[in-house]
Amino acid sequence: MTPESGGAFLQNRIRLRHLRLIRALDEERSVTRAAERLFISQAAASKALAEIEHAVGDRLFKRHGRSVEPTELGRRMILGAHRVLSEFHALDQEIGDLVSGIAGTVNIGVQTLSAQAFIAQAIEALKREHPRMTLRLIDGVLTEHLDNLRLGGLDLVFGRISPDLMAPDLTGTPIIDDPTVLVAGLGHPLDDGRPLTLADVAGQAWCLSPPGTPTMDHFAQQLAAQGLAPPEDQVETHGTLMMLMILRTSHRLALLPERFARHWAAQNVLTVLPLRLEGITAPIGLIWVRDRKPAPAARRCREIVGREIARFRAEGDGAAA
User: Fold this and answer.
1) Phi then psi for 55, rounded to 5 degrees?
2) What is the C-alpha separation between 133 and 128, in angstroms, rounded?
3) What are the start-end ranges of the H helices in the chain?
4) pLDDT value, residue 103
5) Rg of the Cα trace of the chain?
6) pTM of the model as a whole
7) Looking at residue 10, what is its pLDDT?
8) Model pLDDT for residues 79-114, shown as the tens digit of each residue
């Protein structure tokens, strides 16, 4: 396949419809489904894809029956399409905001228990100043949130500022230093007052968050450092309420942020066991893409949340300055 002056095409002839098609093909992995999603015919989708591939001089997607898979060049084009479409979306929102005042929607990923009370207070402070702004809070796994943040699907993320996940492109402001503690339901056999070690608890039954979260990654590293195998008997859940119910009805162990755990211990729902977990201390904070210009609503949200963080920390409730 011979390129048709690829650079000139990308600069002068590419259209948003091409980028939307690339994104749809990435997410649907089918020309038919991508066409349906964009409300165009399959023939139109195939023609648009052929235009791009002819221009760049190589295949973007490999065909496997009715499905498609991106090539290496295709993966690069997919990342570029996400970035450009995200910028156009932000520009569209910015123009609307300039015409009608600060409004719009801010998408915020949330993966934290300890900062929920602070988040609720910060949201109310923001809504008092900008009642027309919509804040969409999305629960999920931190690694997935950060990927979505990079692609433009999220504007901000509340989660642990873990150095190995942040990379050079992300930055953040700490809110709370909240170490992870070991907890169990009331009456657990290990709740006898004696100090515990990892060797004492590794073979117990557990209720844990799925792998991939900073807490679970650090926990796995600590076990490996002491030559201990991961727990064989474990239930995995993202749901905090489900975890609390499991702890109340079983003799399982769990890992929770200390502030959250102390709150529920005071309600006689669980007990905090005497085991010090080293290294699971990355602060919980607000995270964003370092060099991306946010839409006005997202920028204003970050400003007000930052102001509330400074107030929270000045009162001695958050992370050390």
Assistant:
1) -70, -40
2) 10
3) 6-8, 16-28, 31-38, 42-56, 72-100, 116-129, 142-151, 163-166, 198-201, 214-225, 240-248, 258-266, 296-314
4) 66
5) 24
6) 0.58
7) 65
8) 988 888 888 877 776 666 555 556 678 999 987 766
pLDDT tens digits along 231-254: 889 888 877 888 889 998 889 999
The angle, 0 to 180 degrees and rounded to 10, between the axes of the packed helices 31-38 and 42-56 is 110
Q: What are residue 170's DSSP bridge partners?
A: 289
Residues 163/251, Cβ–Cβ less than 8 Å: no
The span from the CA of 240 to the CA of 75, in Å, is: 36
Tell which residue, 289, 278, 282, has the closest CA to residue 319: 282
Q: Which residues of the chain have pLDDT under 50?
A: 5-7, 319-321
Cβ proximity of 281 and 162 under 8 Å = no
User: Helix, strand, or coil here: 230?
Assistant: coil
Produce one character per residue of 165-204: b if its CB has 16 or more CB atoms within 10 Å, e if not: bbeeebebbbbbbbebbbbbbeebebbeeeebebeebbeb
* Other Cβ atoms within 10 Å of 60 Cβ, number: 22
What does 48-110 look like in DSSP terms, one character per residue?
A: HHHHHHHHHTS-SEEEETTEEEE-HHHHHHHHHHHHHHHHHHHHHHHHHHHHH-S-SEEEEEE
Strands 170-176 and 180-185: unpaired
Place of tokens 């904070």: 285
